C-alpha cells in the first residue's frame, strides 16, 4: 500500500513539475549583462572622441563612480536587508580623506585611498555596531542620524572650507606623476575599480558568508535556530560596503576637484537607495544598471524642464510599480529561457 502511494506520488510529481527550467538571465545572463555594461562604459571615451564631446567622458566617469557607490549599498540593502539612510557619509569621508591629506602635503592616491578605506571602515564599524542593535524603521533613523552627524561635523571644519567646501589645487598623484590629470586615465581607473569591486562582491555573496547573509535577510530567526549569529555577518558586510563607498569618494573628489559636505547629505543617501531599487535589489549588476539609468534620466530630463525632478519621480514610481525586480527583474523576464 505504501509502495503504491509512493509510486503514485512520484508519478504525479513527474507530471506536475516537468523538467527543471533555469532562467538564462539568472544563471548566465548576469555575467553577460555585466560584460555588456562594462564594455559599453569602456567604449564611451572613444565615442566622446568621435563626437568631439569631452563632457561625455566626464559623464562616463560620474556614472562609474556612482555605480561603485550603488554597488556597495546593494551589499547591505539587497543582501543584508539593512536600509541604510546614511550611506552617503562614506562617500563624503572618502572625498575628505583626499582633501585633508592633500592640504597636508600627501597627494599620492594610494595613500589617500588607504586612508579613506580605514576611515570609512572605522566609522562603519562604530556606527554599524550601534545601528545593528536596532531593526526596521529604527535602523533607518539611526543610520540617518549618524549620516547627518558626519555631515554637520564636516560643515563645522572651517579649516577645510566648512559649508562652502574646499577646492583641490590639483588631482592626486600616482607614484609621483600627474597622470590622473588626464580625464581618460581617471575614468579607466574608476572603471577598473568598479569591475574589481563587482567581481569581489559577486564571489563574496556566493560564498558561505554570502549565503548566511542572505539567509538572515530571508529569515533571521531560522538562521539563529540553526546556530548562526546574524550580527557579526551583518556588521562585516556593513564595514565592507562602507570601505568600497569610501573609494568612490576618492574618485569623486578627483573627478570634481572639489569636496563639499553636500556629498554626505541624506538626499544623496536617498538617491543611492533609489538607484539600487531601480536596478533591482540583491543582484549587484542591477545596482550598477540602476545607477547608470538614474543619472542618465536625471541629465536627460533636465534638458526639457526646470521641474525635471517631478517627472523623474513620476517615472521612477511607474518603473517600480510595473517592473517588478527593477531593471534586473525586467531583464530576467525578457531574456529568460531554459537552461541546460
UniProtKB/TrEMBL annotation:
It comes from the Bacteria. One of its GO terms (molecular function) is branched-chain amino acid transmembrane transporter activity. Its main location: membrane. Keywords: Cell membrane, Membrane, Transmembrane, Transmembrane helix. One of its GO terms (cellular component) is plasma membrane. It is found in: Cell membrane. It is a multi-pass membrane protein. The chain crosses the membrane at residues 30-49, 55-77, 84-103, 109-130, 137-160, 185-205, 226-252, 272-297, 309-330. InterPro entries: ABC_transp_permease, LivM-like. This is Branched-chain amino acid ABC transporter permease. It comes from Aurantimonas marianensis.
Amino acid at each position: 500500500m505504501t509502495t503504491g502511494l509512493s509510486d503514485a506520488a512520484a508519478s504525479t510529481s513527474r507530471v506536475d513539475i516537468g523538467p527543471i527550467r533555469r532562467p538564462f538571465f539568472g544563471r548566465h545572463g548576469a555575467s553577460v549583462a555585466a560584460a555588456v555594461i562594462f564594455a559599453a562604459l569602456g567604449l564611451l571615451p572613444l565615442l566622446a572622441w568621435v563626437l568631439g564631446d569631452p563632457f561625455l567622458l566626464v559623464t562616463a566617469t560620474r556614472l562609474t563612480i556612482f555605480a561603485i557607490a550603488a554597488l556597495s549599498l546593494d551589499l547591505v540593502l539587497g543582501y543584508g536587508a539593512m536600509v541604510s539612510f546614511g550611506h552617503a557619509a562614506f562617500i563624503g569621508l572618502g572625498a575628505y580623506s583626499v582633501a585633508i591629506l592633500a592640504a597636508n602635503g600627501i597627494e599620492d592616491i594610494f595613500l589617500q585611498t588607504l586612508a579613506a578605506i580605514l576611515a570609512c571602515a572605522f566609522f562603519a564599524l562604530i556606527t554599524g555596531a550601534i545601528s545593528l542593535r536596532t531593526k526596521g524603521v529604527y535602523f533607518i533613523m539611526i543610520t540617518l542620524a549618524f549620516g547627518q552627524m558626519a555631515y554637520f561635523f564636516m560643515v563645522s571644519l572651517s579649516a577645510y572650507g566648512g559649508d562652502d567646501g574646499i577646492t583641490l589645487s590639483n588631482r592626486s598623484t600616482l607614484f609621483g606623476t600627474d597622470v590622473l590629470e588626464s580625464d581618460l586615465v581617471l575614468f579607466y581607473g574608476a572603471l577598473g575599480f568598479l569591475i574589481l569591486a563587482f567581481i569581489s562582491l559577486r564571489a563574496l555573496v556566493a560564498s558561505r558568508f554570502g549565503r548566511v547573509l542572505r539567509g538572515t535577510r530571508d529569515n533571521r530567526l531560522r538562521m539563529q535556530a540553526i546556530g548562526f549569529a546574524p550580527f557579526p555577518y551583518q556588521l562585516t558586510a556593513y564595514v565592507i560596503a562602507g570601505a568600497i563607498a569610501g573609494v568612490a569618494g576618492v574618485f569623486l573628489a578627483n573627478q570634481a576637484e572639489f569636496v563639499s559636505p553636500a556629498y554626505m547629505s541624506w538626499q544623496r543617501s536617498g538617491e543611492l537607495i533609489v538607484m539600487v531599487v531601480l536596478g533591482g535589489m540583491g543582484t549587484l549588476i542591477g545596482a550598477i544598471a540602476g545607477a547608470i539609468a538614474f543619472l542618465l534620466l536625471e541629465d536627460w530630463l533636465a534638458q526639457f524642464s526646470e521641474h525635471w525632478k517631478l517627472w523623474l519621480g513620476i517615472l521612477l514610481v511607474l518603473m517600480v510599480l510595473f517592473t517588478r525586480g527593477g531593471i534586473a527583474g525586467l531583464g530576467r523576464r525578457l531574456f529568460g529561457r531554459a537552461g541546460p
